[in-house]
Specification:
Layout lengths: L3 E9 L2 E6 L7 E4 L2 E4 L6 E6 L2 E20 L2 E17 L2 E4 L10 E4 L2 H8 L8 E5 L5 E3 L2 H4 L4 E4 L6 H20 L3 E7 L15 E7 L13 E3 L1 H4 L2 H8 L6 H14 L4 H16 L7 H12 L3 H8 L2 E2 L5 E2 L9 H11 L9 H19 L4 H21 E3 L9 E8 L2 H22 L7 E6 L3 H4 L8 H17 L5 E7 L7 H5 L3 E4 L5 H10 L5 H6 L7 E6 L6 E5 L15 H5 L12
Parallel strand pairs: 12-21, 12-22, 13-19, 13-20, 14-19, 15-18, 20-21
Antiparallel strand pairs: 1-2, 1-9, 2-7, 3-4, 5-6, 5-9, 6-7, 7-8, 10-11, 10-24, 16-17, 22-23, 23-24
Helix pairs in contact: 5-13, 6-11, 7-11, 8-9, 8-11, 11-12, 13-15
Protein name: Putative ATPase
InterPro entries: HerA-like, HerA_central, P-loop_NTPase
Pfam families: DUF87
């Protein structure tokens, strides 16, 4: 038998008013060996209606000063609380939703902790626990099967505990379910701040960490210094367009011709050398050529490390009549070319060049061919040419072309902490496409294995507010990721994003998320987005968001019948992500460089 605390005195639609007994204001009560919470905001009450118990949540309370009752000769105001039905218990258990409403004089009872737990724990196996409910202090198991079979959003201002929640969520998954998911699922973390490169999340034998850096030249023997891409994936129009931010209408078709030329004329180095000799001859004997072709030929000779051809081209002059001169005008008949140019050009050879140098050669040779044929305007392709040459100095430090040198593991962490902004913008989408395309091509329907991409600090790449790039490239970048988050679920690919500023992220991406862990947010734009995007969030939970304490979050979404306010447990220090605040008291009280006089 439970503790009766009051009666229904008014019903206005879905708003129910209770008259509450005086003793119910106590914080904690014990009855029959069970623990009960008193009546306060966000507590749960049971209203008995026939053979059903209608479960309500307290949303407000007040004193009715117009009504005074006398107790032992002392006046006492009538205490009233406003509650909202959220579901009901019958012989089948708890059912969420408003189906039955109470009537006046129906009795209200406190609920023991076990019954409250049964409301939130009923779709879970009871084992997947990351924290406890803030108000009731009850450890609740999350429905992990439904949670990880969806797209997840984790939001919160800096210092709110967002990173700990992300790490706790997946640490518990790997700790509790490792044997179930090994060999069937893979998890990839795009780590912008280098927070997960240590002992976090998973055991070392199940984890691969790529420590990418554009600041130093990588050690060729270090298998984790560069991310491996297969040659067929590198020579792909999607990959090259991503790497070099190719525009859709002119530069992307140009790159497509580069790839087609590689397939048509052979992909080996001897075929490329012959192809270069052919394009040199076409350029010299075109009859009317552009001055830009001379610069392109000089670039090719320099990339092929042929000093003789470089010296020859230094003597070549272009005249306004569209002809080259080298000891004589080079005519279309090829006689002067054969006499003065061909003997030197025939020494062109390719030795010691990697895939990136080959790309530069093919891009320059293709542009020479297109200019001679009148297919393109040089000024339309030149920006792409410059991006290819400038970007490769950074990209070759973080990517290696070839088969993966080590077997795939359960968890892959790609750390971008030591990468420049250009690489941070491009590589995450490249990696997402890398896993998405390979996974989509390999799985059946329904999928028999899954890929889970986790993007920490997602506003770095998914923002539609960024002004550091052109609108066309920003739209292209967002469209790539929007395709994954919209279509990936049917192929068994799921995305988890964590961000300090959800309002900066593309609304399309936010709208496709299924489940949310919302920490403290105070910006009006962020709160407006939450208010208008998450349909499963009730008004009372929403009002708590700006004042949540560190580590506390509102959990809601399709995997949960009702929103919950959870205090997430802190991970052990060696498992925490490297995102802790600096302890200034400790830092400033520590002598600099071990010098005892540094603080005096």
């Amino acid at each position: 038998m439970s503790i009766r605390v009051g009666d229904v005195i008014a019903v206005h639609g879905t708003k129910v008013i209770l008259k509450i007994d005086e003793q119910s204001s106590k914080e904690t009560l014990f009855h029959g060996g069970k623990k009960y919470k008193g009546v306060s905001i966000r507590e749960y009450l049971s209203i008995q209606r026939g053979f059903r118990d209608i479960i309500c949540m307290v949303e407000g309370e007040y004193l009715d000063e117009s009504r005074i009752e006398t107790r032992n000769g002392k006046p006492s105001y009538v205490r009233k609380v406003e509650v909202r039905p959220i579901g009901f218990f019958d012989h089948t258990g708890f059912s969420q939703g408003i189906k039955y409403l109470p009537m006046i004089q129906d009795p209200a009872f406190l609920m023991p902790e076990e019954r409250i737990r049964s409301i939130f724990d009923r779709k879970s196996d009871g084992e997947f626990k990351i924290g406890h409910m803030l108000k009731e202090e009850i450890a609740i198991g999350l429905p992990w099967k439904r949670l990880f079979n969806s797209h997840i959003g984790i939001f919160g201002n800096t210092g709110s505990g967002k990173s700990n929640t992300l790490a706790k969520l997946y640490s518990v998954l790997f700790d509790e379910k490792l044997q179930l998911i090994a060999g069937k699922s893979r998890f990839i973390i795009l780590d912008f701040n280098g927070e997960y490169g240590g002992e976090q999340l998973a055991p070392a034998e199940h984890k691969t960490v790529y420590q990418l850096s554009t600041l130093i030249n990588p050690d060729p023997e270090d298998l984790n210094a560069r991310f491996p891409l297969a040659p067929q994936e590198f020579w792909d129009i999607e990959t090259l367009s991503l790497l070099f931010q190719a525009t859709t209408n002119t530069q992307r078709p140009f790159l497509n011709r580069v790839i087609s030329g590689k397939l048509k004329y052979g992909g080996n180095r001897a075929a490329l050398a012959n192809y270069a000799k052919m394009k040199f001859r076409q350029s010299f004997c075109a009859g009317e050529v552009k001055p830009a072709t001379l610069d392109l030929m000089r670039t090719v000779a320099r990339r092929m490390n042929n000093q003789a051809v470089q010296d020859l081209l230094a003597e070549v002059t272009w005249y306004r009549n569209g002809r080259f001169h080298c000891r004589a005008f080079i005519d279309p008949d090829g006689n002067q070319y054969a006499a003065h140019i061909a003997p030197t050009v025939d020494t062109l050879d390719i030795q010691g060049l990697d895939e990136f140098d080959e790309l530069v050669l093919r891009v320059n040779l293709q542009l020479m061919s297109d200019l001679n044929a009148g297919y393109v305007q040089f000024e339309h392709i030149q920006p792409l040419l410059k991006r290819v040459e400038s970007s490769l100095s950074s990209i070759r430090k973080v990517i290696v072309i070839g088969d993966a040198p080590q077997p795939e593991r359960l968890l892959t962490v790609v750390s971008l902490r030591r990468c420049n902004n250009e690489v941070k913008k491009v590589l995450p989408l490249l990696f997402a496409k890398h896993y998405y395309n390979a996974h989509k091509a390999a799985v059946d329907t329904p999928p028999d294995r899954t890929i889970h991409v986790i993007v920490d600090e997602a506003h770095n790449i998914l923002s539609d507010q960024s002004t550091r790039e052109s609108e066309s490239w920003k739209d292209y970048r967002l469209e790539q990721f929007e395709e994954i988050i919209k279509e990936g679920r049917k192929f068994g690919m799921f995305v988890t994003i964590a961000s300090q500023r959800p309002a900066d992220i593309s609304p399309t991406i936010i709208s496709q998320l299924h489940n949310f862990f919302i920490h403290r947010l105070v910006n009006d734009r962020d709160l407006y987005l939450i208010d208008n995007t998450i349909s499963t969030l009730d008004s009372l939970s929403r009002s708590l968001i700006p004042g949540l304490s560190q580590g506390c979050c509102v959990v809601t979404g399709t995997a949960f019948d009702l929103p919950m306010v959870i205090q997430v447990d802190r991970l052990p220090s060696n498992k925490q992500p490297s995102s802790e605040d600096v302890d200034l008291e400790k830092l400033w009280n520590t002598p600099a460089n071990g010098n005892e006089d540094a603080c005096s």
